[in-house]
Amino acid sequence: MSASPLVSVILPTHNRSPLLGRAIDSVLRQSYGNLELIVVDDASTDATPEVVKGFSDPRLRYVRLDRNVRAAAARNVGIRASSGEFIAFQDDDDEWLPNKLERQVAALVAAPKEVGLILCGFRRVEPNIVWHVGGQGYVRRVDFSRYFGDGDFSLISTPNWLVRRSVLEQVGLFDERLRSLDDWELGLRVLQACRLQHLDEELWIQYQLRPANAGMAWNESLMLHDYPILLEKHASRWSRSTVAQYCFHTARMHAMQGRLSDSRAWIARSLKANPLGLKAWSFLFASYAGDGATRLVTRAWNALARARRRIVGLVYEHPAYRGRYEVRRPN
User: Fold this and answer.
1) 1, 15, 76, 132: which has the highest count of C-beta atoms within 10 A?
2) What's the total number of domains in the chain?
3) Domain annotation covers residue 186
4) Are 204 and 95 in contact (CB under 8 A)?
5) Which pLDDT score is estimated for 330?
6) Dihedral through CA 167, CA 325, CA 125, CA 227, nearest 10?
7) Same domain, 93 and 202
């Protein structure tokens, strides 16, 4: 291994030993070899140490934590232990295609200094469908100052990233208070400091074979914890509409857990930001009618949201929208 690898790859893991070997192997088999791979074991209790010991590549470093600190803190441990000029991230259940780093490194080396982040396309594998996520039409819509839940923001997923260390030194590392949206929040800060460049190529595979609510990205209890932190850090730079959306959905999640007084407080914040918010007003009135009325209004708005997603999904499958993302159904 080079004394000073250009790229440091950070891979946090926790109790994913059956999948971890594939993720590690896909990094070590990259056509670009000037790298170090730092596997941060976030206090796993399964066979993770044995899986890592199965690799003899000198570019692999193993850091084991004594207690579980979650992904954001584990990634920060890896970053602080790394030495590369460029930082990349791998997840323990995903797979890189062999030329991922080669293509991203070439792009970042050739890019002007104001480009600090290279994103790429990828293949998303779900139980009944396979997507190509990418395209110039897609990346033009990536706006991390919008509400997180308003659309598909998969391009900010950390395995997409190749980022300059100098950018992270400028904006700071992952916020360790966050339990789910740490990548999203760091992306907000990164893109305040630099430009991004998008490679419209499928360079890795994201496996989403669990139920939608089984992971962290759409786990409402985690988002309920994270949204107030996002507002604390970024509301002053967001539009009133975006602030209202975060406050409204925080209120909705409180209401669904039976905390109506907390829900009303967040509805008030939402209406202060956007006094014309129809959903917020409907929730406020329903909250005074009791828990049953609140749940009824929630189900009604959720049904409308599902209908909208179905319509949007049909539109995205139309050839005119293939620049945003392409659907490939399994045979």
Assistant:
1) 76
2) 2
3) yes
4) yes
5) 44
6) 50
7) yes
- Pairing between β-strand 129-133 and β-strand 115-126 as defined by DSSP bridges: antiparallel
The helix (H) or strand (E) run that includes residue 100 is helix 100-110
Q: Which two tokens stand for residue 322?
A: 């293939």
Q: Read off the amino acid at residue 16.
A: R
Residues 193, 56, single domain; the answer is yes
| Region 135-144 average pLDDT | 69
197 and 274, same domain (yes or no): no
- Which two tokens mark 309? 């997603």
Q: Is residue 218 part of a domain?
A: no
Spatial distance between the Cα atoms of 126 and 330, rounded to a whole number of angstroms: 10
Instruction: Give CA–CA dist 100/102, Å, rounded.
Output: 6
Interatomic CA distance for residues 292 and 297, integer angstroms: 9
- Whether residue 133 is predicted with pLDDT greater than 70 in this model: the reply is yes
Question: Is the pLDDT higher at 65 or at 136?
Answer: 65
DSSP state at residue 233: H
Residue 166 belongs to what domain range? 7-207
pLDDT of 174: 98
Domain co-membership, 173 together with 257: no
The answer to whether residue 232 is domain-embedded is no
Q: With helix as H, strand as E and coil as C, how does 211-222 read?
A: CCCCCCCCCHHH
DSSP state of 153: -
Are 111 and 197 found together in one domain? Answer: yes
Contact 218, 253 (CB under 8 A): no
Are residue 264 and residue 166 in the same domain, yes or no? no
Task: Based on the fold, state whether residues 273 and 191 are members of the same structural domain.
Answer: no
Question: Could you tell me if residue 118 is inside a domain?
Answer: yes
- Per DSSP, which regions of the chain are E strands? 7-13, 35-41, 60-64, 86-89, 95-96, 115-126, 129-133, 162-164, 195-207, 325-328
Between CA 181 and CA 186 the distance in angstroms is: 9
CATH number of residue 23's parent domain: 3.90.550.10
At residue 208, the pLDDT reads 84
The number of beta carbons lying within 10 Å of the beta carbon of residue 135 is 19
